[in-house]
Write a structure and sequence with these properties.
This protein has eleven helices and nine strands. The chain has an eight-stranded parallel beta barrel, surrounded by five helices. The longest helix is centred in the N-terminal third of the chain and has 10 residues. The protein is globular. The model has no long low-confidence stretch (mean pLDDT 98).
Length: 254
């Protein structure tokens, strides 16, 4: 499925329209509601609970975003949905709860966080949980992952939902657990066909790469992350079709 046009017209709020100082932690119900009210697209992250529920949460560990200790995967969903996010009033939401909040009012870009640990093939449970939650959802939605295996598996489970690859230069500092050979391979973005990806979302610091130009020349949309100023947005739009932003409010096209 091709990426719906709304993903190329509305700026996409990174981890929803978050601002902890304003009571809207990242990936929170408060941030989702603010993005919907403002008319922005929304990007969120999915992690897996101990009992196989798709949770809207970025980190692998709870500490930074909640003050609780330990991996999110070691807690059942019932416990996670009672843990408040630091700076907000709502707890960690399930994917189903966020889908209900968005309700098709704005486009929703969903990143499946790697569950293999090294961007390998040991995945499947989170992809299945995400597909279950999305069954019957009406609205513009797309799913992506740094792990091409996740994109391929999710696409097989939900062929009517457009999928894409989250991409970057996969340097060793950012990906210390991923073997060098795999990092070097993924940096070339070779898995468009195998994963049936319909777009990429690329690191803004590497947008001028030959790999991104090659993909855009093939007619596939290029999104990018994460833009934090109007000046950075203007530069990114030289190479990308849309931006994922935080920390400022980009204009919404008429």
């Amino acid at each position: 499925m091709p990426l719906p046009p709304a993903f190329l017209s509305l700026p996409i709020a990174h981890r929803a329209l978050h601002d902890r100082a304003a009571g809207r932690p990242e990936n929170s119900i408060e941030a989702v509601r603010a993005a919907v009210a403002a008319g922005y697209g929304i990007e969120i992250d999915l992690q897996l609970s101990q009992d196989g529920e798709a949770m809207v949460f970025h980190d692998y560990d709870l500490i930074r975003l909640t003050g609780e200790k330990g991996p999110i995967q070691m807690r059942p969903a019932a416990d996670l949905t009672r843990i408040p996010l630091t700076g907000g009033t709502h707890p960690i939401p399930t994917f189903a709860q966020v889908l209900e909040e968005v309700g098709g009012k704005v486009p929703l870009l969903v990143e499946i966080k790697d569950q293999d640990g090294a961007l390998g093939p040991a995945i499947g449970r989170l992809e299945q949980a995400a597909a279950r939650a999305l069954k019957g959802y009406r609205g513009d939605v797309a799913v992506m992952s740094f792990n091409p295996n996740s994109v391929r598996v999710f696409g097989g489970l939900a062929p009517d939902i457009p999928c894409g690859l989250t991409t970057c230069d996969f340097n060793a500092d950012d990906w210390p657990l991923v073997p060098k050979a795999r990092r070097e391979r993924l940096a070339a973005i070779p898995d468009i066909a195998a994963s049936r990806a319909q777009f990429i979302s690329h690191d803004r610091t590497d947008l001028a790469s030959a790999e991104v130009a090659r993909i855009r020349a093939r007619g596939l949309p290029v999104l990018c992350w994460t833009i934090r100023s109007p000046e950075a947005e203007a530069e990114a739009r030289r190479f990308a079709d849309n931006v994922t932003f935080e920390g400022y409010l980009p204009p919404i096209p008429a």
